[in-house]
Amino acid sequence: MAAYNEEAIIKEKILNTLELDYPVKQREIFIVSDGSTDNTNNIVKEFESKGIRLIEVQDRKGKENAQLAAIKQAKGDILVFSDAATHIPKTALKRIAATFENENIGALSSEDRVITESGKVSGESAYIKYEMWLRSIETQANSLVGLSGSFFACRKNICENWDVDVPSDFNTALNCVEKGLTAVSHPGVLGCYAELKDDAKEYQRKLRTTIRGITAIVHKPSVLNPFRYGLFSFQVFSHKIMRWLVPWFQLLLFISTALIWNQNIYTMTLFLGQLGFYGLAITGWTVRASRKNPFIKIPFYFMQVNTAIAQASLQFLLGKRISMWESSKR
Question: For the chain, what is the domain count?
Answer without folding.
Answer: 2
